[in-house]
Amino acid sequence: MTPRELLEQYVGGGKVMQVATVDEAGLPQVCSVWYQPEFRPDRLRWISRHDREHSRAIAANPQVAGAIVAIPLDALGQVVQGVSFQGRARQLPAQGVEDEVQAFIARWPAAAAALEAIATGGATRLYEVAVDAWVLFDEEHFPAPGNPRQPITAE
Q1: How many domains is the chain partitioned into structurally?
Q2: Is the dihedral of CA 64, 70, 71, 77 positive or negative?
Q3: What is the number of alpha carbons within 13 Å of residue 118 lying toward its C-beta?
Q4: Cα separation, 124 vs 105, whole angstroms
Q5: How far is 151 from 84, CA to CA, in rounded Å?
Q6: Angle at 119 between CA 128 and CA 12, to 5 degrees
Q7: pLDDT tens digit string along 77-129?
Q8: CATH number, domain at 57?
Q9: Which domain holds residue 38?
Q10: Across the chain, where does the E strand assignment appear?
């Protein structure tokens, strides 16, 4: 498999990602969110309340980074596989994103009620990061003495 194919497999099979933002005071913060991926163009979407710290941080500074671990974690020293990314995040509008909402609901049916409430002013919003750069970290497919860190161009 190519690094890009591995990346899409790991991101597509993942459930939760960590998203790092910078608040208005310049302090970093990390949150964990359930996500829905899209490729070509490379996008990651999640839902969150608009009044959460990370949501307010995105409104002030859209630059984000994040990570997705692609393996069950059992013990220190195991072979690591995962993905990190950088990009620009934004809150999607309440209207005109029906395809994005349906894709998220298809992956996470329990989110339907929260997402349907967006149009009526509910607290939940749909967010999206347009990925600018990926890094695949894969000690199984790229072991030492090679480099498990494989930068991949976003598409």
Answers
A1: 1
A2: negative
A3: 24
A4: 14
A5: 9
A6: 30
A7: 888 999 999 999 999 998 888 899 999 999 999 999 888 888 777 788 899 99
A8: 2.30.110.10
A9: 3-153
A10: 16-22, 28-38, 43-49, 63-69, 81-91, 124-138, 149-153
